[in-house]
Design a protein that fits this description.
By secondary structure, the protein is an alpha/beta fold. The chain has a domain at 1-36 and 109-290 and 360-421: 2-Layer Sandwich (Dihydrodipicolinate Reductase, domain 2). It is built from 13 helices and 15 strands. α6 runs parallel beside α7 and α10 packs across α13.
């Protein structure tokens, strides 16, 4: 989806309301004025995620991708199939020495983000860094401070900030359409080993870096970072404490990061946000369930459901058990049968934008970064939302490792509150 169709899909919202709902969208305000301008972008880490971003950047008439840097030659070769004119480097520092490059995309393994981001800011580049931003909470704070010190644009890969269904539904959430939001349940389930084939054993830890503690925090940094930001966006607060558990219960193949994790994030008013990820069962997939007193939102499906939809008949197996119990024990005249559980209501819901989702916001996120690089203006809030998304997944991982509830550290707080406060 391009910017014009995106704004059209949100046409029920006036321009002023749109900017107030999602301040980071102001980056598009000068899009017409910059129609003839271009920026030069270098990509550090054109692996699978980097090339996904490249698929959008290569189609953007305002963007010229001029260089790639990667220590793995096959990734460079694949990137050159998309942009054959780009220069290639094995050392990212050589890319940063090119003064004609305005901004960089960092899509490398998690444990390498820190030094690359600091070096890029020091080289005067605008930075887009994939999430999670860094390997530790301290590194994350350092990167954010460097962004503030240099005044360079800083984007993180939180594409849901630019997803039209999320933007529209958050307007509804903050307008109390679904009543009081008292809980958010987020989860991301898969059924697979998350392992990639390697051409030789000596490349195992380079290619499968997500499976090892030295380079990744596993499911919390690779998946939870996407979804925790959605929960704080909906509730409009940051949690004050987290507890969690994790283990390797199925994929005992030499990895040392967990193959299942579960965390509970607690807010100062008692509300909770849960996060869980299992990679040995995919039936429930991924979702952020935003639970209000008058309605429920499932933004990944692009739908919402009102509580007052109406009673639905009990599933057939429940009816059968109720009839069997009545025959054996006699009907209970005081209350419903004990076999009458509160099951999920049969409620078709409504599409947030009138139809099934067509985009996850990545195309618009990359377009916004290009606009920001051209103008040199940092969109409000986007760096801070990305900062806290990373910090929350990292403190959650630490709570799992330590096996005890942990408060959010005061020293990691920045002067910012999530949108919606």
């Amino acid at each position: 989806m391009d910017r014009r169709n995106f704004l059209k899909s949100l046409g029920m919202m006036g321009a002023t309301t749109l900017a107030a709902t999602s301040p980071w969208l102001r980056t598009f305000a000068t899009a017409e004025e910059t129609a003839r301008e271009r920026c030069r972008i270098g990509m550090i880490g054109p692996g699978s995620r980097g090339r996904f971003l490249l698929s959008f950047l290569a189609q953007n008439p305002k963007c010229e991708v001029v260089a790639f840097a990667d220590i793995y030659q096959p990734s460079l070769d694949e990137a050159l199939k998309v942009v054959p004119t780009a220069k290639t480097y094995k050392d990212y520092r050589l890319l940063l020495e090119d003064k004609s490059i305005d901004g960089v995309i960092i899509a490398t393994p998690l444990n390498t983000h820190y030094q690359i981001a600091l070096d890029a800011f020091d080289a005067g580049k605008h930075v887009y860094c994939e999430k999670a931003i860094a390997y530790t909470m301290e590194q994350t704070l350092d990167i954010y401070r460097k962004h503030k010190e240099t005044g360079r644009v800083f984007f993180t890969g939180q594409q849901r900030l630019f997803d039209p269904r999320y933007i529209k539904v958050m307007e509804m959430v903050h307008d109390d359409v679904f009543g009081d939001i008292n809980a958010v349940h987020a989860f991301w389930n898969r059924n697979g080993d998350w392992r990639r084939e390697v051409p030789s054993p000596d490349l195992e830890r380079l290619i499968n870096w997500r499976l090892y503690k030295e380079s990744s925090k596993g499911l919390m940094t690779e998946l939870a970072c996407h979804q925790l930001q959605v929960g704080t966006w909906a509730i409009g607060k940051l949690p004050v404490r987290v507890m969690g558990t994790g283990a390797i219960t199925h994929w005992k193949d030499g990895r040392d990061v967990y193959d299942n994790v579960h965390c509970i994030y607690e807010f100062d008013d008692g509300r909770q946000m849960t996060y869980g990820s299992v990679i040995s069962n995919k039936f429930y997939g991924l979702e952020e369930q935003i639970l209000g007193t008058t309605g429920t939102v499932e933004p990944e499906r692009g739908k919402f459901y009102f509580e007052s939809y109406g009673p639905a008949p009990a599933p057939a197996f429940v009816q059968m058990l109720m009839e069997w119990e009545d025959k054996v024990w006699g009907a209970n005249t005081f209350a419903g049968s004990s076999w009458d559980p509160e099951v999920a209501a049969i409620n078709p819901g409504e599409y947030i934008l009138g139809k099934a989702p067509e985009t996850d916001g990545t195309s618009l996120l990359t377009e916004a970064f290009v606009e920001a690089v051209i103008t040199g203006h940092q969109p409000p809030r986007i760096a801070e939302e990305g900062y806290y998304a990373t910090q929350l997944c990292l403190i959650g991982h630490e709570a799992i490792v330590q096996g005890q509830p942990l408060p959010f550290p005061e020293k990691m707080k920045i002067p910012y509150k999530p949108y919606g406060t």
